[in-house]
Amino acid sequence: MTRLFFRILALTALLLAGAGLARAEGPVATAPVAATTPPAAGKGLLILSATYADEAEPIRAGVVWRIFNRHPEADGSHPLVAQTDDALPSLTLPYGDYVVHVAYGLASATRSVTVGAQPASQRIALNAGTLKLIGVLGDKPIPANLLSISLYVPERGNSEAKLVMSNAHPGDIIGLPEGNYHIVSTYLDKVGVGALNAGNSATNSVVEADIRVPAGQMVEATLKHRAALITLKLVDGPGGDALANTSFTVLTPGGDVIRDLIGAFPSLILAEGEYVAIARNNDRTYQTVFKVQSAQDQDVEVLTKSAME
Q1: What's the average model confidence in pLDDT over 18-28?
Q2: pLDDT tens-place string over residues 241-274
Q3: Domains annotated on the chain, with CATH
């Protein structure tokens, strides 16, 4: 029994790491068989359900089941014999011993079960809750494609100790093991033009939050970004036409470069705060200081020397 226990623990670790568990033994079931269908000779019925912690009501969506043969192959792997995303499956399987793995988002559990002539029922309680993320700018929701959200499991002295999800989306309901999490939300610049490093769409508008997800509960986390769209122009006078062939650099007051851009009127999203814009045109350099207020898009004009004289 001790050896079997450690084999089951090893199987669970492989699943959580996203590793494959060897070839399937015969066809893999991808849909449940109705409980009313009489099993064929030598086959029995396995009825599965998952719940939150000690709740009686089963989880009815977002569950993935995988059934493995309990007896390993010569190489130590456990063949996958069935898989379904039906929340309440009834599976017909040959008589034998199996390992049942259930996943709900990032939460999972593993149990052993024996299928025989009498129907076998397995209800697995998951020590999990759910997280719903909402991103807003001012009082308006931010489109999902404009946010990059990562989830971490923190440790003492390191809020980003273990990355558990790097592609979370606003509006998604994410199943998570009960525990503490650190959220990092980055506003993406999909509307800006003229960026020289166009491959990097991350802006300097980053929101972080610490939350706890209790078992059996849904937590809503609202990520409030404070930023605005800024359009840069080099002009000979206030309200003048933007000069072409101009390159811009946006810096913090401390001199840290935020982004380099080029064009007559390039744009970018900036977090609320104070900045310096440097414009270069015909081997001459001009600059101005400007402020960004949340949700207030604006044009920032850099005046040429002749305009300032």
Answers
A1: 37
A2: 999 999 999 999 999 999 999 999 999 999 999 9
A3: 2-126 (2.60.40.10), 128-225 (2.60.40.10), 227-308 (2.60.40.1120)
Percent of all residues in the chain with a pLDDT value above 90, rounded to a whole number: 72
Question: According to the 3-state scheme, what is the secondary structure of the chain?
Answer: CHHHHHHHHHHHHHHHCCCCCCCEEEEEECCCCCCCCCCCCCEEEEEEEEEECCCCCECCCCEEEEEEECCCCCCCCCCEEEEECCCCCEEEEECEEEEEEEEECCEEEEEEEEECCCCEEEEEEECEEEEEEEEEECCEECCHHHEEEEEEEEECCEEEEEEEEEEECCCCEEEEECEEEEEEEEEECCCCCCECCCCCCEEEEEEEEEEEECCCCEEEEEEEECEEEEEEEEECCCCCCCCCCCEEEEECCCCCEEEEEECCCCEEEEECEEEEEEEEECCEEEEEEEEECCCCCEEEEEECHHHHC
In this prediction the pTM is 0.76
